[in-house]
Write a structure and sequence with these properties.
The protein is α/β, with parallel strands linked by helices. It has 5 helices and 5 strands. Helix 2 packs parallel to helix 3.
Length: 126
Amino acid sequence: MERFGSVLIVARPGPLSDGLRAVLASIPRAEVADDLVDEALSLLKAVRQHRPAIVLLDFDLLRRDGPESLQQIKALSPETRCIVLADSVHEQQAAKDAGVDATLLKGSLPATLIATIERLLPQRCQ
């Protein structure tokens, strides 16, 4: 099956990023971008380099300048969709206020994450 978009994972190395990679491996139309971004400072550089279809972000990495980082992603790459994984409803709301495309609570069912990613992936290559 032809792949339609890369997904950039923005999370610290460990169980969360490993689990996200495993979930993404089950989505035929998606591919993980080469880099795992584990700090907010390198996020924009990676978005500029990969122009991913989706950025999958751990809200924990955005605590210091979260809304600004999210807005910069959209300014740099308007076609990139952002999904934020949050620890609380408060964090979800902050991400929504910053203009992300979707938010999920950490610990959500993998099927929910898969459905969200599939919904946001482009239907065909542009």
